Amino acid sequence: MTRTTTPTVDALGTDVGVRLPVAVHFDDMDPMGLLHNSRYAVLVERAWNNFWRDRGLGGKSGLDGDGFNVIKAFDITFDFPVSELGEYAVHLWMERLGATSATAGYRVCSADGITTYAHGSRTVVRLNKTTLTPTPWSERVWEIARTTGLLQDKA
Q1: d(Cα 9, Cα 134) in Å, to the nearest integer?
Q2: What is the pLDDT of residue 152?
Q3: Euclidean distance between CA atoms 65 and 43, whole angstroms
Q4: Percent of the chain residues topping a pLDDT of 90
Q5: Which region among 15-19, 79-83, 130-134 has the lowest average model confidence (pLDDT)?
Q6: Is 91 left (phi over 0), alpha (psi -120 to 50) or beta?
Q7: Which residues contact 109 (CB under 8 A, 6 or more apart)?
Q8: What topology does CATH give the domain 6-147?
Q9: Number of Cα atoms under 13 Å in the Cβ half of residue 84
Q10: Domain boundaries, the chain
Q11: Separation between Cα atoms, residue 7 and residue 150, nearest integer Å
Q12: Are 66 and 51 a contacting pair, CB within 8 Å?
């Protein structure tokens, strides 16, 4: 699978963000043949990790610098069950980028972005690797957020 980002239009009408390909595999399914509820969060996390690493953030381990952050909150609403294996997408956008935290919206959707299976938001806090206290995002994060169409409010 090629990791490319495609600008997309959110189902709610916002014209921000990127859509990244993800795959649903056999072992992602529950006994009813549906994508297990815990796997939606995994798809979202993998999409974000790929987005930032493709832009050179996080270093080789993915946990250096801005890549060293923790989830503060993860909210999800399930809209329609994923019932088949194959290619899907995660549409990502930034709702708020603060000094040390970021809240992002997402949709788990069909590969073409038309069908939304789940949507929500996630908030992360960047930590200092030594003290484990909040630390500011680098200018590179701000630059990427501004230039890739991630930010909803460009002000």
Answers
A1: 32
A2: 65
A3: 23
A4: 78
A5: 15-19
A6: beta
A7: 11, 19, 88, 89, 90, 91, 115, 116, 117
A8: Thiol Ester Dehydrase; Chain A (3.10.129)
A9: 6
A10: 6-147
A11: 9
A12: no
What tokens appear for 15 in the block?
């014209």
pLDDT of the residue at 2: 38
On whether the CB atoms of residues 93 and 85 are closer than 8 A, the answer is: no
For residue 65, the tally of other CB atoms under 10 A from its CB is 17
Q: List the Cα angle 11/102/135 in 5-degree steps.
A: 170
pTM listed for this prediction: 0.85
DSSP string computed for the chain: -----EE---TTS----EEEEEEE-GGGB-TTSSB-HHHHHHHHHHHHHHHHHTTT-STTTS-SGGG-EEEEEEEEEE-S---S-EEEEEEEEEEEE-SSEEEEEEEEEETTS--EEEEEEEEEEEB-TTT-SB-PPPHHHHHHHHHTT-BS---
